[in-house]
Design brief:
With about 230 residues, the protein is α/β, with parallel strands linked by helices. The protein is built from 9 helices and 6 strands, in the order E-H-E-H-E-H-E-H-H-H-E-H-E-H-H. The chain has a single domain, classed as Rossmann fold (3-Layer(aba) Sandwich). This is Alpha/beta hydrolase.
Length: about 230
């Protein structure tokens, strides 16, 4: 199972959840920080992410990483576990690479841009400028400005309002477990219900008392649901 972190995440920000999950499943896990995050190579100061930044992670970076690690996805296709932006990357990978994907678990993925999500991202920008959020992110990123502004500026870039992968995800052939908290401040339930309408082999999990990070807010319920889902296949 390959873990794909959120838009401000990193390897360390998962804490011990990946280990808990793969121990429960009896599987192996791969956790990494994408370029610009964690201890990976920071984004150049002049580099602005483009509208296709998640597509490039799915279609170029992740396949290159698997090859570099000697993982032959044609022979042993991985499961992908993606959170937020990482969930969108997982969906895009599976839509392109059918035989190289065994299954997906996506938490709070984005398939389109919603106004309420943008308002939350604007509030996060203000928090980065006015509070200790930068110091908190510095515990997990060698260059917190690289991680934060790369993510924040592209999401608030006006043309990004039209971003959508709704037309692409219908090509997904593997099983999908799509999870969202009922109190998610970055997306409505339309994000996962839209997946289910286009990918009929999707199971939905809508969690009460849960925000944007089900693996932090409801870890036990999530691990149980993933285990049940995997056993059915």
């Amino acid at each position: 199972m390959v873990f794909l972190h959120e838009g401000l995440g990193s390897l360390s920000m998962w804490k011990d959840f990946p280990q808990q999950l793969v121990d429960a499943l009896g599987w192996r896990g791969l956790v990494y920080s994408r370029p610009g995050y964690g201890r990976s190579t920071p984004r150049d100061a002049e580099e602005a992410w483009q509208l296709d930044f998640m597509h490039r992670q799915a279609h170029e970076v992740l396949p290159a990483l698997l090859r570099a690690l000697g993982i032959v996805a044609d022979q042993t296709p991985p499961w992908l576990f993606g959170h937020s932006d990482g969930g969108s990357i997982a969906l895009l990978y599976a839509a392109r690479f059918h035989r190289q994907t065994a299954g997906l678990v996506v938490l709070a993925p984005h398939i389109l841009v919603e106004d309420m999500g943008l308002r939350s991202i604007e509030a996060t920008r203000q928090a980065y400028l006015d509070t200790d959020l930068r110091d908190k992110l510095a515990r997990h990123h060698d260059d917190p400005d690289s991680a934060f502004w790369g993510w924040n500026r592209i999401w608030l870039h006006p043309p990004f309002r039209e971003w959508s992968i709704e037309g692409e995800i219908g090509a997904i052939e593997c099983p999908v477990l799509a999870v969202q908290g009922l109190d998610d401040q970055y997306g409505t339930l339309e994000q996962i219900r839209g997946i289910a309408r286009r990918v009929p082999q999707t199971r939905l999990l809508e969690l009460a008392d849960c925000g944007h990070s089900p693996h932090r807010d409801q870890p036990e319920a999530l691990i149980a649901a993933v285990g049940s889902f995997a056993k059915l296949l």
